[in-house]
Structure formats: structure tokens, C-alpha cells
Amino acid sequence: MSALLDFERAAQLAAATLRHARRLGVRPLAAAVLDAAGHPLALLRDEQASFLRPQIATGKARGCLGMGFGGRELARRAQAMPAFFDAINSLTGGEVIPVPGGILLRDAEGRLLGAIGVSGDTSDNDERCALLAIEEIGLHADTGDAQG
Amino acid sequence: MSALLDFERAAQLAAATLRHARRLGVRPLAAAVLDAAGHPLALLRDEQASFLRPQIATGKARGCLGMGFGGRELARRAQAMPAFFDAINSLTGGEVIPVPGGILLRDAEGRLLGAIGVSGDTSDNDERCALLAIEEIGLHADTGDAQG
Amino acid sequence: MSALLDFERAAQLAAATLRHARRLGVRPLAAAVLDAAGHPLALLRDEQASFLRPQIATGKARGCLGMGFGGRELARRAQAMPAFFDAINSLTGGEVIPVPGGILLRDAEGRLLGAIGVSGDTSDNDERCALLAIEEIGLHADTGDAQG
Amino acid sequence: MSALLDFERAAQLAAATLRHARRLGVRPLAAAVLDAAGHPLALLRDEQASFLRPQIATGKARGCLGMGFGGRELARRAQAMPAFFDAINSLTGGEVIPVPGGILLRDAEGRLLGAIGVSGDTSDNDERCALLAIEEIGLHADTGDAQG
């Protein structure tokens, strides 16, 4: 059963992600933190980020939770099964964005707490800022990386 | 004319599919059983399955009934005619998910009773759990397998 | 925090609702049982029920969970604030069906487990069948009735 | 031209709103802060709030910005012209939720900075928590109140 992530911690996580982007000089980001059921806890958009970023960030996090994998595993599967992922996205209105930058959040025992999705720069930079923030906040990241 | 599958038997079929998944140790599943007209009789989601699974399971069963073939035949056709399947999915809002795990249900005389769709693990494991449940319940499976 | 309702119990609850309708001679029903986050656990449609019933049953349960009230309280509020409910339904694609027959499910300590929505006969008969099934299964019903 | 509200201040405003709700003992809230163009800066949902609240909070803020009035003025107009507001909501997919709890945010010179929308308790309580937070953060509220 899922443990609980509260809105204060979710807001800290999203804000830390946007601040890391500014510090590192990558493009302005949006970050969405969802609970384990896919409902929003915190969504922040850097006021300089373009306006589709919040929706894409939310989609990255929703897709990870909806399918049960981090974004890197979704990306691998989408490459292996393009027709399946095309059909899922027609079916769900684009709920599954299969790229890095969607990360499952777990506690120390591995229980699912929710997910974060980030959008604004390259997928690798999006993910990098989220990973720094997740470590800072003391959660565990599941990116879907086979080595991770 | 189609013969009739009642809700009690449809519920047994969906429940048996989810129980086989647990017994075999595959990932938690959702299973959707539709009547021959494509309308739901029973949809069950293992409470541990991720939340897009019911929609995908329903889509697998809808696609089989909507096109008149089991999922394996849909998969072959989607590979041969990707533009056709892309267009169908834009047209229908993703009603056709062309992978194994969608199975037409027939009676002993081959008459169409409905379909089951399963999602949660690999397509092969999804289909395997459904086939065990279909046999248990005494129905006949049409997976679209050329040899089947 | 929400406690857990498993798919076996959810399926029993939905099946018991449909059986009470048959026993009482009311019109054939559909019943949807959702977890506390609004995701489906069990959806059953009497094979004699008309085909929009599953969607309406799901909408009744979703609306209760999405707004945090049983269907009778939603009905009172919709009567007092029609413009608000019209707007919500345009916004959410009809997620809030403000009539009896949507019931929050609680455990003995009052914790939210999920909701059931029922459709097929009058709202009062829909609710009556669900209440009999909830009692049979040993859960606690929150209909939003001010006296309840 | 609109002055700028940054994401840090927007996040503080949303968080302060949710904290006032907890302190006052009203129901758990969601709060959405949008920039003057209607795009999200900060959306927070108390982890105890029901799941449609973020969408409704966003709708309240969007409607104020989209029409150029605070929620109290929208409510008055919806009561005077129900057919117009029904048509707007069909047209826009429910972008205009005409009730208190949507508030335009202005700077000391009256320039538009964005809007906040709040949902979870009665419209009056939603608005009350937002007004306390707006004062705390040092912005100016335009609720659409004729006396305001």
C-alpha cells in the first residue's frame, strides 16, 4: 500500500527542481508532483518557462504512475512497441509521455509515494534537476533506468 | 445472432484472470470482459495494478470486437499497415490496441459471446492469465493466432 | 489517510448490488466500485441493463469522491448552486452526477475506502440496492443524507 | 503591460492559503495561482482534499482572468444571464466557474498580476483563506465585490 506525501514536501520538491535549473543555467522548467494515484499535490512553473510545460510535466508524471514504470523504462518500451504507445496515447488523451524526466518517488522501504514530472529543457537536463531535488528532499528516485 | 454471456460468468472470468496473475507472480492486472456489442459486463482491477490498466484492458477487448479479430491478428496487421492503424486510432480515440491480451470469446459452436482484454504485465503474460481463466470458465478463446 | 479496499471485496459488493436488484424486481443495474482515489476496482453491468449505465454508475461514484460528499449532499448543492454544477460538468466532462446512487464507502473508523455508484432504475432504487449490498459486505455507507 | 508574479511568490501564496484553511479548521483546499495570461505558476492540493479540487480551483482563476472580473462579479452576472454562462461553458469546456473563490491579483498601482482560485469548502470559506494569504504576501485582491 502507498505511503503518504504531503503538500508541503511536494511543494519543496517542485521548488527545489526549478531552483536547480536556474543555478545550473538550463532552460526554465515546470515541475509536477503527483500522489501515488496520479492526483496533483504541487505544480510549479518558472514564470519564464513556456506555457505548455506544466501540462507536459504533468503528463510525464501521470504516465509513470499510470503504467507503473519510470520514464526511462517507458522510453525503452515505446521504442520497442510504437503501435502500442500510439494507441495508448489516442486512448488516454496523451497521458503517457515516454521520455526521461518522469520519475517514480519511493520511500526508504521502496513504497510508492507518487511521481515527479519535469519539462523545459532536454529530457536529460529535466531529469537531472529533479534528481538533485529528490536527493535534497530525502526521497528515493526510480527513473526506470535498468542500472538504477 | 450472438449468444449471451451473463454478468456472473463475466465477473468469474475477470476474477479468475487476476487470481492467475497473483498465483504465477506476474505483475498485478486489470481485466475487462465486454459483450459482443462492445459494452462492459465486468471490469476488475487488482488494487495493486497501476491506474491506466483498466482503460488499456478495455481498449484491447474493444479493438478485437470492433475489428472482428483477436489481438494477435490485430498486431500482425498493425505491423503491416501502421498508417491505417494510426488513422483508426485518431478516428476512434484509441479504440484499437493492437497487441496480444485481447481475446474474442466464443461458445462451443464458435458463436461470438464477447471479448476479454487484459493489461498489467507483458502482453504475453497478460494473454496467458486470460487463457487459463477462459479454460477454467469453460469458454473458447480466439486470440487471432494463425495457428490457433 | 485512506485504508484499502481489495478487488475481491469490491467485486462482491458490485455483484451483490446487481443481485438485490434482480431479487427486488427493479430494473437491471450497473454498479461501479472505485478506490478512494477514483480509480476502478470493480465495474459490473447486468447483461440486461442498457449500455450507458456503466458510465453513469462510474460518474456517480467519481463525483462523490472528487467532491468529497455522498450523492444526496451533491444533489442538495446542485439544487442550491446550479451554475456552479453546470460549470463543473463542462470542466470535467461530466464527472459529477449529483443524484442519489453515489455513496462513499467507509470503514468502522470512518476512514474513506472508496465509493460505489449505481445506475439503472430510479435514483432511490439504485441507492437502495447498493445500501443492501454494503450492509451485506460489512462496510459503512455515507450517502450524504443529512440524517445519515 | 502586466507586471510579473514569480513562481516563488506564487508558491508562497498558494501554500499560505492551504495553511490558513488548516488553522481555521475548514475543509482541505486546493489553490491555483495563474499569471495574467492564465497560465499556471503554482498549484497546490492539500493531500486530504478531494481530487477534483485542483481542476475547480484552476477553473475559478481562469474564469476571472478570461472574463476580466473577480468571482463575485462573475456570480452576479451568471445569475442575471444564465443562458450566456451556459453557452460560455459549453464553448470553453468549463473555463468560467462563476462563484466566489476566484480573485484577481493586483499590485499597489492596480496592475493585473494574475489570479488565484481556491476550492474545497464553501465558496465563502475558500475566498476567506485566499484573502488572508493575499494580505500576508502583500498583494492586492480584486474579488469582484461591488463594495470592494
Automatic annotation (TrEMBL), chains A, B, C, D:
Domain of life of the organism encoding this protein: Bacteria
SUPFAM superfamilies linked: GlcG-like
PANTHER family: SLR1406 PROTEIN (PTHR34309:SF10)
Protein name: GlcG protein
Natural source organism: Pseudomonas knackmussii (strain DSM 6978 / CCUG 54928 / LMG 23759 / B13)
